[in-house]
Structures are given as structure tokens and as C-alpha cells.
Automatic annotation (TrEMBL):
Residues 178-430 form the Chorismate-utilising enzyme C-terminal domain. It comes from Halovibrio variabilis. Its cofactor is Mg(2+). The gene is menF. This is Isochorismate synthase MenF. SUPFAM superfamilies: ADC synthase. NCBIfam families: isochor_syn. GO terms for molecular function: isochorismate synthase activity; magnesium ion binding.
Length: 441
């Protein structure tokens, strides 16, 4: 007797659902076998496509297709989460992100805020892989919902190996230029400016142009293999544009009422060997400029969390080591008040002082006035939200890719003592990993 495929199992279970009487969220799941989630995602014809994996050891790997519900506001998302929780039963995960500065023009096909419940989820975890079909029975016609779910299952195809990364010749343009950058840094570090704005985070867009860019999922796969201690994400809302990244910084992780966040700021390079690496780490922790940069971040986070929490605790400064960089990090734990929602957290915490500056409004006023490139979802938010738990990253170390252009982004916190040439070199170090994958390292 021939065993049914995972898709056939889900189709059979879908046919068994009653067309009336079902209410709320329904997830149909079955075990499956998959070698590479990105290879599976890349070959599908459905959009949007999303990929997410937290940086925690053993974290679930998610690949998602299509859409059941989508929300372009935190209030609408929170209302849907509350409505589904009131019905009870299994609760869904929503995936998506937010722009760095919703008040400014962003990327054309990336709303200021967008979270969605995907139609299809493929998850990989320590126990194996699971293929899931999501349905929502609310005010929509149940017959139509089942028909749309069938169509999505029918469109699924078997995974294929990712294409190899091919070398391309790129034309590079930095925005701002190094000369403009130096002028900005001198303005920010002027004592008169520091008196009211002790930290501004300036960013640079490195635009790489070529007749045909690399496959975004193949690029992400190679990138993540050298970024084990980072988050990994990717999203395609349409065939010709993608946003991918391997950010090291957590916005926050919430389990029930317990929240973990971090102050990640202050940077140096990795050493040639273990001894030099340790010397550089020790110098970083002792450096006044980098310590000040980190202090600006954690003080603002503590100020933001205190009204929302019954208890807030901050850990000691320590070094977070990445492939090319070392950062100063302090972990912050908070017990949230019972009525605090993800909507409130996402209305208060981003943009973090690590990417937005201190105080926020005067720092943002400087970047709005001077930066000509659009940050869009760079230094914004991406991740997973559910009723029980949420996990979100700050979208740094990322690439915005279309058919002819790869845009890489990097930023640096400018405080008293910042030197233009040193900060410019830091920007190059922050994009070094992906530049090497593109053959430009």
C-alpha cells in the first residue's frame, strides 16, 4: 500500500473539516521530510515567502508561504490576537516586520508595519520537520476558506537544491560619500550638539549594481552558515524583490509576562588569534567612547521598560563575539504588568537607541535632515508574534535585493570621541561578511 505524501494527508484532513460550525483558528499538521527549508521556499510559486529563525540554540526554523490574514497596523494585529485567544484552542504565529521610521517614506513594497498569518508553514525542529496548513474561520465564507487552502496545497512542489552563487561584477556607490560622512560626524560631535543629543546613529547605504543579482535565498543560506550566533530572516512580497539578513541584535523575547532584551552597542574587530582577540575584547570593555555608547542604549531601554514592568534587572557588561566583530552587550530582564501587550512594546521600544540614538526625537531629527537614502525596514523590526510568546530582532546586517541592485546597510553610533575615519571603517567591517560572499571581500 502506497503511503500518502504530506500534502495528500493535509488535503484529506481538509476535506474532513465541516463547512459549518468551525470557529477561530485551525491548524492542520503532519510530519514531513525536508533537507533544506530555503531550498523548499525558493522553488515555490506562492507569495509572500518568509523565513525566520531565532538565534537561540536549537531554535525552530520557519518557512512560510501565502497569507490567511495580514495587518498593516499594530492595533489591528493586537485585536486579532485577542479575538483568537478569546475563542480558545491552538493559537497561531504571526510573522512580519516594521520600518525604522514609519513617519518617513520607506521602500515602495514594504509597508511601515506588516504582520501576517501564513497559509502554509514548514517548520524544522529537533524532532524533525512539520508541514502545516493554517485556516481561519471568522466572518469569511467557510467554503471559500477551504477552497483557497486546497488551492495553496495544490500549488506546493518538492524542494530543490538552491542555485549556486555565481560571481558578478558590481558597480559600488556609497550613500553618503566618505566626505559627507566625515562632515556629519563632526556636526554630531560638536559640543553644542552633544549638549542636547549625546548619541546619533548614522547609517550608510552601499548600493551594488549589476545586470543580474544573486538568488536571495542562496545568498541567505551561505550567509547564515557563517552567522550561527545571529537571527536569520528573509521575506519576499513579490518575485523581484527580497529583504534578507543575519542580525545579531534582539529587540525582545517575551514568554508570557517575562521579557528579555539587551543593550548591544560598542564595537571592535575580531583578532587574528585567540590572544589578540582577548586583548581587543578587554580594550573594548575599557574604552570610554564605546562604554558611553552602550550606556546611552541601556539607560533609555530601562527608562522605557520601567512604566510597563513590575521588575527590571540588568546584567553585567560582557562581550558578544561574532564572525568579524565583537560587541558590548548587557542583558535586561523584565516582568511585565499583566495588561502589557506586544502592541505597547512595539510602540515604545523601537527604534532602539542602538539604531536610533538618544534622545530619540532629536537624534531622529538629525538623520531625517541629513540621510538621503531610505532606511525602510533596515534597522527596523522582524520576527514572530503570538499570544503566548514573541521573538523579534532588530534588522541590522541586512540586504535589500531587487533584480539589478543589492543594497547593504550599516550604521554607527556617534558619541563624544567618535572619529570619522574609524567609524567609516566600522561600517565596512559590518558589511564585510556579505561582501565576501559576493566576491568583493
Amino acid at each position: 500500500m502506497q503511503t500518502k505524501s504530506p500534502v495528500e494527508v493535509l488535503q484529506h484532513r481538509l476535506d474532513s473539516l465541516p463547512e459549518t460550525g468551525t470557529n477561530g483558528f485551525v491548524r492542520l499538521s503532519t510530519p514531513c521530510q525536508v533537507e533544506n527549508l530555503l531550498g523548499w521556499l525558493n522553488i515555490q510559486s506562492m507569495y509572500p515567502r518568509l523565513y525566520w529563525q531565532s538565534r537561540d540554540a536549537g531554535a525552530v526554523e520557519y518557512a512560510a508561504l501565502g497569507v490567511v490574514n495580514a495587518f498593516d497596523s499594530l492595533a489591528a494585529l493586537e485585536a486579532d490576537l485577542a479575538a483568537l485567544a478569546a475563542v480558545g484552542g491552538e493559537q497561531p504565529d504571526f510573522f512580519g516586520g516594521m520600518a525604522f521610521d514609519p513617519s518617513t517614506p520607506g521602500w515602495e513594497h514594504f509597508p511601515a508595519c506588516h504582520f501576517l498569518l501564513p497559509r502554509i508553514e514548514l517548520t524544522c525542529h529537533q524532532g524533525g520537520a512539520t508541514l502545516s496548513l493554517n485556516l481561519c474561520f471568522d466572518d469569511r465564507c467557510p467554503k471559500d476558506e477551504i477552497a483557497q487552502a486546497h488551492a495553496c496545497l495544490d500549488a506546493l512542489v518538492a524542494e530543490q537544491p538552491l542555485p549556486r552563487l555565481k560571481p558578478h561584477v558590481y558597480q559600488r556607490e556609497d550613500r553618503p560619500s566618505q566626505q559627507e560622512w566625515a562632515a556629519w560626524v563632526w556636526q554630531v560631535t560638536n559640543p553644542d550638539h552633544l549638549a542636547h543629543t549625546p548619541k546619533v546613529v548614522l547609517s550608510r547605504e552601499t548600493c551594488l549594481t549589476t545586470p543580474k543579482t544573486s538568488n536571495p535565498w542562496a545568498l541567505l543560506s551561505r550567509w547564515q552558515s557563517g552567522a550561527a550566533d545571529c537571527f536569520h530572516f528573509g521575506v519576499q512580497f513579490s518575485p523581484h524583490e527580497a529583504f534578507i539578513g543575519c542580525p545579531p541584535e534582539r529587540l525582545y523575547k517575551r514568554e508570557g509576562r517575562h521579557l528579555i532584551t539587551e543593550a548591544l552597542a560598542g564595537t571592535t574587530r575580531r583578532g587574528r588569534d585567540a590572544q589578540q582577540d582577548q586583548v581587543l575584547a578587554t580594550e573594548l570593555l575599557a574604552d570610554k567612547k564605546n562604554t558611553l555608547e552602550n550606556q546611552c542604549v541601556y539607560q533609555q531601554i530601562l527608562t522605557q521598560l520601567e512604566p510597563l514592568s513590575s521588575q527590571v534587572q540588568m546584567g553585567e557588561a560582557h562581550i558578544m563575539k561574532l564572525r568579524s566583530l565583537q560587541h558590548i552587550r548587557r542583558l535586561i530582564h523584565a516582568e511585565l504588568h499583566s495588561d502589557v501587550s506586544d502592541q505597547q512594546l512595539l510602540s515604545v521600544l523601537p527604534p532602539t537607541p542602538a539604531v536610533g540614538g538618544v534622545p530619540r526625537e532629536s537624534a531622529l531629527a538629525f538623520t531625517r535632515q541629513h540621510e538621503r537614502h531610505q532606511r525602510g525596514w533596515y534597522s527596523g523590526v522582524f520576527g514572530r508574534i503570538s499570544h503566548a510568546s514573541s521573538d523579534l530582532a532588530v534588522t541590522i546586517r541586512c540586504a535589500h535585493i531587487d533584480s539589478e541592485t543589492i543594497r547593504l546597510y550599516a550604521g554607527a553610533g556617534i558619541v563624544a570621541g567618535s572619529q570619522p575615519d574609524e567609524e567609516w571603517r566600522e561600517l565596512d567591517t559590518k558589511i564585510a561578511d556579505i561582501m565576501s560572499l559576493l566576491g568583493m571581500g
